[in-house]
Write a structure and sequence with these properties.
Layout (H helix, E strand, L loop, with lengths): L7 E5 L4 H12 L3 E6 L2 H13 L3 E6 L5 H15 L4 E4 L15 H28 L3 E5 L4 H4 L13 H22 L12 E2 L1
Parallel strand pairs: 1-2, 1-4, 2-3, 4-5, 5-6
Length: 198
């Protein structure tokens, strides 16, 4: 029996990359997985992979930076599997690769909404379901780049648009710390019965 047997996990950004890998790994440990992403074909492919591996999964399509889509995804996931124990805030697009002087307000809000608003929105609607289930765990995927900002001697740090994505991921990390404080949990993520681990 796996470490996550009997648990239900919602993983955002599950259409490819880290989100797809985590979906398969969580299912391999026994969790039922709610795979959420904007790309229907890709997220359905992820759910199909989980099922081929012998796991349980559903694919749900939506933009997790928008309230109606997140509410619908959480409700559909709970309807399918009965509860929600784990949220993985993985969704996030670093945005267009443009120099800051060409980065429009729309570009900025697209990036911030993708990386930061999505984490807040999913947490907001997942927490009530986790409390009903007696507690839960929230994992926010970030990047070490959020701490260093940019280093001129590194070519990837000079890439146009790098700073905007880091602002979003850095904000998500700050929100995680705030939510953890509200949940009264150990900063290391140690679970407290009936509480939330963030």
């Amino acid at each position: 029996m796996g470490q996550l047997a009997g648990r239900v996990a919602l993983i955002t950004g599950a259409s490819k990359g880290v989100g797809r890998v985590m979906s398969r790994m969580f299912a391999g440990e026994g969790a039922a997985v709610i795979c959420a992403a904007r790309s229907r074909d890709l997220v359905e492919e992820t759910a199909a992979m989980v099922k081929t591996d012998g796991g349980r999964a559903i694919a749900l399509v939506g933009d997790v930076s928008t309230e109606p889509d997140v509410l619908r995804i959480v409700q559909a996931g709970v309807k399918a599997f009965g509860k929600l124990d784990i949220l993985v805030n993985n969704a996030g697009d670093g945005g267009p690769t443009k120099p800051v002087q060409d980065y429009t307000v729309d570009d900025w809000f697209y990036t911030i909404n993708s990386c930061l608003t999505s984490s807040y929105m999913c947490t907001r609607f997942a927490v009530p379901e986790m409390l009903k289930a007696g507690g839960g765990a929230i994992v926010n995927i970030s990047s070490t780049a959020r701490r260093r900002g940019g280093r001129p001697h590194r070519s990837r740090d000079r890439r146009p648009g790098a700073g905007e994505g880091r602002a979003g991921r850095g904000g998500a990390a700050a929100v995680r710390r705030a939510f953890a404080a509200q949940a009264h949990v150990d900063r290391r993520g140690h679970r407290v019965p009936g509480r939330l681990s963030v």
